[in-house]
Design goal:
Elements (H helix, E strand, L loop, with lengths): L19 E6 L3 H10 L5 E7 L3 H11 L3 E3 L2 H6 L5 E4 L6 H10 L3 E5 L6 H14 L3 E4 L6 H11 L6 E9 L19 H17 L4 E8 L6 E9 L4 E7 L8 E5 L2 E5 L8 E6 L2 E6 L8 H12 L10 H18 L9
Parallel strand pairs: 1-2, 1-4, 2-3, 4-5, 5-6, 7-10
Antiparallel strand pairs: 7-11, 8-9, 9-10, 11-12, 12-13, 13-14
Helix pairs in contact: 4-5, 5-9, 7-9
């Protein structure tokens, strides 16, 4: 850990006995960043990519030097060379392809949120247990060096009892109405897309709240939530959480304790530093990520696979289940139901 402007750029690697061959399902923006970070991790090899368009898959494979490109997801799952699959499809299909991949004997890292709801999450976890395949939700913030340092400091008791967490994740979604972020049929809306981050940090630092209060503003045409505010109430603390597609307003996360205040620097879901303020004394800790920051969850996947674990201790199945349950409760509060849940 480096203090007051001195930058640390190295990161821990995991020695693997042989290359772990990755497949990527879905070739969108998040997959491009992930593929770029794979090149930074020792023992990782991007072997196969799949899109519903073979042309898109081939273009992606060429750019990121994947060995094979497929024009369907099933073709990739049938490839016995692939060890683990990163699922970067729209939210609505996360559960389907996570389950299929494990049934095809693949380990799985699925982009957040891992499913639409608690019911789907339970089905994913059950499949992991039945197939003995590793599964993890790709909540990369959990493995971010700054977040880990902040959590370690809080867990040590040095910050004292936490009284408040204030976390916002907002950006102006200047996208066409047809975009997946606005499409309820694809699990669209601010809450699942970006509201999961504020909910995560409250849950990770304070646990399950005793009460949730939530309100939302909805898109006048697609009816997805475009702005949601949440209050997680705890016995002696409160988390004020917010997400929005209507404003560029994301700011530092503020964590107030009895002995000081911690700030995770915005964009805090991929924080490069944090600040500790105690008795008017300010220290800035710079911990820049390697690549875009997906490197750390990739390394965690390798560690778990090497040790024949089906889940990560740092971000377990139970943690994912409890987090999606909090999002389910929030949706119940705001009255948001996805079309697939009405069937």
């Amino acid at each position: 850990m480096e203090i007051n402007g001195f930058v640390k750029t190295s990161f821990e690697q995991v020695v693997v006995q042989k290359k772990i061959k990755w497949g990527i399902i879905g070739c969108g923006n998040i997959a491009r960043k992930f593929a770029s970070d794979l090149t930074l991790v020792e023992g990782a090899e991007l072997f196969a990519v799949a899109s519903r368009s073979i042309e898109k898959a081939q273009k992606f494979a060429k750019k990121y030097q994947a060995t094979v490109a497929y024009g369907s997801y099933d073709e990739l799952l049938l490839d016995t060379t692939v060890d683990i699959v990163y699922i970067a499809t729209p939210h609505i299909s996360h559960a389907e392809w996570s389950i299929k991949a494990m049934q095809y004997h693949k380990h799985v890292l699925c982009e957040k949120p891992l499913a639409l709801n608690k019911k789907e999450t339970k089905a994913i976890i059950k499949t992991s247990q039945q197939t003995n395949r590793f599964f993890m939700e790709g909540l990369w913030t959990r493995f971010n060096p700054s977040f880990i340092a902040v959590k370690k400091y809080i867990d040590s008791g040095k910050l004292g009892k936490i009284s408040n967490i204030n976390a916002d994740f907002s950006f102006l979604a200047a996208k066409p109405i047809e975009s997946r972020v606005f499409d309820l049929n694809l699990g669209g809306g601010a809450l699942l897309d970006i509201g999961i981050y504020p909910a995560f940090i409250a849950y990770a630092l304070l646990g399950i709240p005793r009460k949730i209060k939530a309100t939302s503003t909805f898109h006048t045409i697609t009816h997805c939530d475009i702005e949601t505010s949440m209050v997680f109430e705890y016995e002696n603390a409160q988390a004020d959480l917010h997400c929005s597609f209507t404003i560029n307003n994301t700011k530092d996360v503020c964590i107030k304790g009895a002995k000081g205040t911690l700030y995770l620097k915005s964009p805090w879901h991929a924080a490069q530093q944090y600040t500790l303020v105690t008795n008017q004394h300010k220290e800035v800790f710079k911990l820049p990520t390697a690549g875009f920051g997906f490197t750390y969850e990739i390394i965690e996947c390798h560690r778990c696979i090497q040790n024949q674990r089906i889940e990560s201790k740092r971000w377990s199945h139970q943690y994912s289940l409890e987090l999606i349950s909090l999002l389910d409760e929030t949706r119940a509060q705001i009255g948001l139901i996805y079309p697939q849940e009405k069937a």
